[in-house]
Structure formats: structure tokens, C-alpha cells
User: Fold this.
Amino acid sequence: MNGYEDRVPGYLTFRVAPQPGPIAAFADQEAWQARERYPELLGVGLAEFFYAKERDAGGWELFEYGASEPQGARDSLGSHFRLCAKEAGEAGDAEAQKEWMAAALRMDREVVDEVRVRGERFRIVRAAKFIRMGRSGPEPPRPSDPDPAEVGEALRVPSRTKGFVVDPYVSTGLSDGLLKLDLVQFIGVSPNTPAEVHADAVRAAEKYPGGVLLPAVFMTSERVDGQWRAQNPGASDSTPQGARDGLAAWLRVMAPFNLRLSDEKRAEYARAADVLDEKRSNGLSVDGRRFRITRVERLVRVGPGGPEGPRPSDFDPQPPVEVHTQQLKDQGLWKEDDEDEPIELDERAREFKELWEQEEVRRAAAKERRMNKKRS
Assistant:
């Protein structure tokens, strides 16, 4: 009897195969254990958006870093078109330069989620975010998750997402295959979700029934009123250390500024940040507050026409740059470059500036100490 695999569309195929190498085997084992320790899947809320290009060999290649709003990804795509126009001009190809620049100008004034330029197809791609939850709280980073950065140096580590190809034909390990199967069936909205958001989620599950997992990212969660919540749902980092650096910066700068901490409390929060830097731990308690570095799974839904784009209900407050500029001009809030005047900082702004300057000095000194230690 012939198998059914050739009759199943690629976007509905979940290909599982042993992943080569001991590290991949270890990661697959950890993923399987996570299903038992953190069995509950929860949607994070805000999605992540990228611009992608369709590949002749199949799949869609993601570019740059994710944005928390669709317009951020559209603006990045417009910048990409400008770079292509510049390169075409330097190569002496006036026709290509004109076409790339026309595409860039279109992105400046229109809400465009898919466009074809010079035979290449581009699309804004949506990735939903999820965390695993267990009795002890959200899942922290796994030992197999890449975490190569020094303290304070995480931004120098290349993102594992840039250049990733969204292709359902690519096989995964057994654990990731099961996770993908779980997530494509998961609507991922809470009971209090607005009706239009719920309807969009149900529609997406029907229209894009397949999916591809992106590399995990990391964020900070805080336990508030007996429940774990994302400290900043729109922010994530490609490495655990990036999330730790973000939490340390919050403890040293944002907490003193936003919470108007006393000198005594500022010192307490700063000591907690020092401990976080020293131990590179994934959990932290300070001043009665509990934080945890949390692993975030991401899924791009895929249908017969390719990956899912933005949904009508996605948070997307900013219009294209040219439209926004005109709005500011109509409101009398726009100033041309030659009209710029020195900005007078109020007392709070000066306080914030001073905190960040202190943090930059501290980081530079810490980096110098690390360099001296390596030399000795």
C-alpha cells in the first residue's frame, strides 16, 4: 500500500528526524523533560514581527531583528529597500536603483504587508510567543540554550533568528515536533481577551494550520499578586544573558527612576544587580519582589500561501513614517531639521540622564576589569 505522505501539503507535514550531534541530542532530551516539568502552555500576548524574503529553494528567510509592532517591521523593510537602491546605484544599475527606491517610498506612505520587487517577494511575518508554566513557575533557560556572552556584552552576540528560514519541510527532533503540534492547535488567548482578538486567533488557526518553531528567546518574568507576569511583554533577548543584562539595567536605572527609591533602596537594588551579574543566575529576589529569566517559545503559523502576516487586531498604533510626519505637521508638532532648538531637560529628565550615565561608567569599568583579568 502506498503511503499518504505525498498527498499531504507541505505546510501540514510535521517532519521528525534524529538531529545530528550530541548537543542536539541533549537539547532534545531537555525539551522532552520540559514537557513534564512545565506542562502548561501560555500565550505571552504581544506577537513579534519580521520582514522576510521568499527563497527560490523554498521557505522564507527572516531578516534583521523582530519588532513588537507590524509597522516596525515594515519600516525595517523600507530601510532594506533603500540599502538595495544604494547598492544598485553604486553598481551603476540605474533601473534597479529606481525600482528599489520606489518600493522604499511606497513603504513610507502605505501599510504594505506583502510586496514584490524585481521578481523578489517580501512579506511581514508574524511570530506568536509562548511560555511553559509548571508548579514552580515559568520555565527558565535550559542548560543547552546558547549563552556565550559576557555580562554586559550580550548585544554583541548575533541573533539566531536573523537568516532563519521558515520552512515546514525542514525536520526537527521529536520533542520540538510535538511542541509544534501542540502550538498549532493552541489558540493562545486568555478568557478575558477581546472578541476581535479571539476571532482573529481562531481564523489564523484555520487559515494557517501548519507552523515552524523559531529559536527560543528570553525575557524577564515577575511574580505579582500570586501570578507570574512578563515584566515587559514586548521585549525579549536572543540569549539568557541578554535578559539578565536587561534586568540588571532595570534594577540600577529604571527601578530607582520609576519607583522613586530612597538612597537605601537604590543601594539594595544595585546590590541585587551585582549578585545577578556575578552569579549569572536565572532567579532573583529583592525588596519582596521575585524575578525569573524565562524561556520563550515562538511559532510562525504557515498555510498554503506561506507564513502568517499581521492580524487586524494586532497592536499597531503607528502609521507609516510619511503619514505620521504629515499628522505631526497638521498638529503643528513637526519641526524641520534647521528649526531644531536646544532641548531643555526638566529635573526628572536630568535625573534619568544621570542614572544612565552612571550605569555606562559602571559598565565601562567592569569591562576594563574583565579585560585586565584576561591579560593577567
